[in-house]
Amino acid sequence: MQAIPLGLYIHLPWCERKCPYCDFNSHEARVIPEADYVDALLRDLEIDSALAAGRTVSSLFIGGGTPSLFSTRAIARLLAGIGSLVELSPSLEATMEANPGSAEAEKFAGFRAAGINRLSLGVQSFDDTQLQALGRVHSSDQARAAIEYAREAGFKSFNIDLMHGLPGQTVAGAEADLSAALAYGPPHLSWYQLTIEPNTVFHKRPPLLPVEDALAEIQEAGEHILVAAGYRQYEVSAYSQPGFRCRHNLNYWSFGDYLGIGAGAHGKVSCADGSIQRYAKKRQPADYMAAAGETFTARRHELSAVDRTGEFMLNALRLNEGFSLDQFSGRTGQDPAAIEATLQNLARRGLLETEGEQIRASELGRRFLDTVIAEFFPDQ
Fold first, then answer.
1. Residues in a beta bridge with 7
2. Which domains can be identified in the chain, with CATH numbers?
3. pTM value?
4. With a cut of 70, which residues of the chain have pLDDT below it?
């Protein structure tokens, strides 16, 4: 198989308050055992570094939880330790998720000095009523201040996370949120629809969300605003100015490899013998920190041929540019002939289109993307 990029995901699982829509592995805590957790992360990576097999890590992403609750000293120690265990690219993209709370924003310069060069700010909305409905702990004023802090701290690359389809949201309300974000000229914008996930407060007590027609209208209006402002959509919910696409997430979407360390973190690695392994770490922070040796890993499995094809398509078809057959075979090790009939069937139905060597979802296919992807999971 062709050379495949390698990323590193680091999970910091604590947050100030669990949001009612959140299904991530996050845990409320007033006191965070920073030193013990960083110790565990570095022990974990020391073991996983063997999976890198001399490869260079091209991107890292610190997610959560709320990673910006950690001190700048802890983040500096973590990044220094990572650099001593794996080879980091000279052009490393190092992203950290951050909440707009004032205490976290004041740390931004310290995170930048520690080696973080890209922030992802969890704004979600600039409407205080919506922020309260979403259970966010920050205000719209704090969100605006955090963006200014990020700029002042020297972050040339940063992302604003923004939701739409919020409880009772109108088209005008969604447009106002987008306009507020674009006023800051963020290099990258993640603009995605609120969905109700199992095992969340919203799933037990669903809020009243906009109806399907209103959601479609919001999506269409928002896309016009983003295009007019000079942003290019490159994935279902990702928009950027030229040169600021998120390399780490692109690696996920193009079926690249990544190590995963931290409580509940997932990893995917292509091995020298041609196999592709997925694994997950222990989910509970206390169990994770108490782990030693191989016991950091809770489960591991090898991807079958069907798994490889399905997972590749699950991600690649989210990309506006789609994929080529060479990319498919290079990343999965599979013969493109195995998917030829499915591709032809979807193309006949107007759900896929081809331009040169690139195969991608058509406009119709993007509207029914779940249906398109399901064709590559025949047993499910």
1. 59, 258
2. 6-251 (3.20.20.70), 305-374 (1.10.10.10)
3. 0.95
4. 1-2, 102, 380
